Amino acid sequence: MTRDTKTEADKNGSAEQFINVELADLAVTFGLPAKRFQEELAKFGWGMILDEANRFAHMDEFDRMTELRKQNKERVRQDVHPTWAHLVQAAKEFLPHLASRVPGTPTTPPDRLTGYVYVLFDGITGLSKIGHTKTAGRRQRAQMGGHGSPIVNVVNVKVADCLAAETQCHEHFAQYRTNGEWFSAQLEEIIQYVDTELDWLGADYENQETLEHYIHHCQSGNREEAKAVLRKGRSRHSRFKPTSGGQAWGDI
User: Fold this and answer.
1) Domain ranges of the chain
2) Residues in domain Bacteriophage T5 Orf172 DNA-binding (predicted)?
C-alpha cells in the first residue's frame, strides 16, 4: 500500500510536492528489512487487539455484576480474562473491512501444543537431531547426558505447536534421515531452516565461541576437551537451558 506524503518545503518556500511511499521505505529509515518491520508492526497490532479484548472482558464483567445487583443476588468478583469471542470482537473493531469474513459463531481454536523444537548436534558423527519438547530443556538434558559422545544443544525455538513444527522439519530433511530423529544434513542448513521457516515465538542459540571450540575438539577427536568446553560454556551463560546461550547463529 502506498501513500501520498508531502515533502518538506525548501528554503525558498517552493510549491508543495508529494511522493509515493511504502512500508519498505519507512523500514529503511529504521535500518530494517521490510519483512522484519512488518513483523514488528504485527506484534504491535496484536498487542492492541489483546488490550481491546481485555477491555471487552471487563465491560462484560461490569454488566454481570450490575445485573446481579439489580436482582439482589450475591456478587462475587472473579478474575477477568478475555474469551475467544472477545478476541474476535476486538479484531473486528480494528479490522472492520474483514468483519464480514467472520462466521456468525466463530469456533474456538483447539488448544495448541506450545513447546520447543530443538536441535542437538553430535560433533563426532556430524549428525543432528531435530526433536520437540513441552519443557525448555529437560528432554534435551536427558539426551545429552545419556548419549555416547558429547553433544551440544545448538538451538531451542519456542513455537505454538511443537509437534507440527517438528514434523515440518522432519519432512523437509526427510532425505537426510539416518535413524529416528537424526539427520545427516549440514548443521548450517538445519539451523537456517529452523530460523527462517518456523513461525517461532522465541529462540535461543548456543554461544558462538563455545560452539566453534566444541566442533574443533570433536574434529580433532578430543572428546574430553569437547565435554570441557560445553561444561565451561554452561557455567558462564544461562538463559534458555540447556544451551549456554548468547549469540545468534553465524558461520562456523
Assistant:
1) 23-100, 115-236
2) 122-197
